[in-house]
Amino acid sequence: MEIYEAIDRFLEYKASEEGLNVSNTILAYRNDINKFLKYYPEIKDTDDLDPVYLDQFSFDQSLDELSASTISRSISTIKNFYIFLEGENISKNIYKKPIIPKKEFHIPSFLTFDEVTSLFKCLDEENEIEYRDKVMLLLMYSCGLRVSEMISLEKKSINFEEKILSI
Description:
Radius of gyration: 24 Å
Order of helices and strands: HHHHHHHEE
Number of helices: 7
């Protein structure tokens, strides 16, 4: 099967069978596969695919100094593409478990106690807006909320009697 036809079938499968209707996800998959094909321009047909390409692709990307998480995501897409092709009997014996680089561990940055204290002190409680902002910051800080969780918080999520917050 022509490689671009196979890619279209794979993306249609991802969109319909797995419920991935988010166009950004499908676009990311397409970009990963197109990046893969740029490394191997000789691939014109699914018969041209080789299991060795997965490891080779991982290695080649590391030479381009891409991050381990970027490489892992791309490899995952290509791996799933290979598995799809085998599952649909489009290609045979092309998948083998790839070597995936370990992701870097980053210690998150955070504010010190003094920085947090200074932040809260700079908000004027007499000003309605700043008082609201201070309450939101205190809630996020004391409960470990993400901004998205704070924004989506509804009044019904707060049990004032038992002092419980449901996220």
